[in-house]
Automatic annotation (TrEMBL):
This is STAS domain-containing protein. PROSITE patterns: STAS. Residues 1-108 form the STAS domain. Signal peptide: none annotated. It comes from Nocardioides panacisoli. InterPro entries: MlaB-like_STAS, STAS_dom, STAS_dom_sf. It comes from the Bacteria.
Length: 108
């Protein structure tokens, strides 16, 4: 798993599953408390999943818990670039209630 911090966005690349969930969890919480995010509390924190090859239920739970934690501290966290299979797993697991998905641009 490759994790890149790009301002308000945390970009994940690779497989996000039980093996990498600890690393991603730490990166998300570090990102929520980083200087950039602290200086821009009105701006939503985005977790970019565009380049994620695989996601399992453990990974989605990490995101759901982090999203709720962010909300409790007055921050918004959104998922960007969630592919249809990730969206489907969020719906099937009912974790869709705990995360906010960024609106996808509509094709012209």
């Amino acid at each position: 798993m490759d994790i890149k911090n790009e301002g308000p966005t945390l970009v994940l690349v690779g497989d996000f599953d039980a093996r990498t969930s600890g690393e991603v969890r730490s990166a998300i919480y570090d990102h929520l408390h980083c200087d950039y995010v602290s200086k821009h509390p009105e701006q939503a924190v985005a977790i970019d999943l565009t380049e994620v090859d695989h996601v399992d239920l453990v990974a989605l739970r990490v995101i759901a818990v982090a999203s709720r934690t962010a909300a409790r501290s007055g921050r918004r966290m959104v998922l960007r670039g969630a592919c249809p299979s990730v969206r489907r797993m969020l719906h099937l697991s009912h974790l869709i209630r705990a995360v906010e998905l960024e609106n996808e641009p509509q094709p012209a």
